[in-house]
Amino acid sequence: MRASATAPASSANLGPGFDFLALALEIRCRVTLEHASEWSIPLEAEAIVKEVTAVVGSPGPFAVTIESDIPVGRGLGSSAALAVATAVAAMRADEQEPDPAVILAAASGVEGHPDNAAAAVYGGLVAVSPSGPRRLTLAPTLLPVVAVPNQTLATAEARDALPATLPHAAAARSAARAAFLIEGLRTGDADALAAAVGDELHEGPRAALSPLTTHLIEVALRAGALHAAWSGAGPSVLALATANSVDAIEGALKDELAEDGRVLRPSIAISGLA
Question: How many domains does the chain fold into?
Fold first, then answer.
């Protein structure tokens, strides 16, 4: 049987929401699987596809086709979207009804953390705790703008840059920023979002890996962004604009990147897997 599925890109962390917060973006990865006598699969996707199909109990072999508009290695959840879309397509190919909880567990296991996977499964703004995922309210006035440098940054390298411990004072500041961030995302309040900028958990320690990312955040904020942060492990930057500021922010980021990247204006992916 032949089956297809799609899952969206995502921007995780959003500053102080490290490893628990992500926003789904309407940039899609489509995976098509068809039962075959042997595996036929793009080499770069082999590990993820074989692992996730085995985890959901549909181990193949499959002929695999992948069509993705999500930039790879830029902090936009490309591997999570691939894992989610693959898991769903595999279950459909075996005439199983995809269970979002099963899909999330499978994709999170491949990823090593659940934030991008949860956004890819459920769409919208998602928070994940040890008790599971929860969709959060996002103000409809907030419009994402994403600056995508040509350079890549491996997630493993970005994680290696993180300190093993954090001072209590920094942890307290981070918790406060996270509270202001979630309230600002819910209401669109500019003051709350401004209070969420300046993460010390991961953005500060990673700054030396991609000075361009830090600079693009500053450019976006000067151009009128209500919030700007590393997108996942970078080097992309997510800026949140309003209808009045979105053109100026896009223009400023394009001018800064020039030939060294591109700027996207995706809508929010209201639904996740499809």
Answer: 2
Nearest Cα to 265, choosing from 251, 256, 106, 55?
251
Q: How many Å apart are CA 40 and CA 62, to the nearest integer?
A: 6
Q: Which two tokens stand for residue 168?
A: 């209590």
Place of tokens 């994709």: 107
Range of the domain at 189: 137-264
Q: What is the spatial distance between Cα 221 and Cα 246, in angstroms, rounded to a whole number?
A: 11
Domain assignment present for residue 270? The answer is no
Q: Within this chain, do residues 21 and 104 fall inside the same structural domain, yes or no?
A: yes
Tens digits of per-residue pLDDT, 56-69?
Answer: 998 889 999 999 99
| Residues 229 and 250 placed together within one structural domain of the fold | yes
* Cβ-based neighbour number of residue 96 at 10 Å: 15
Q: What is the pTM of this model?
A: 0.95
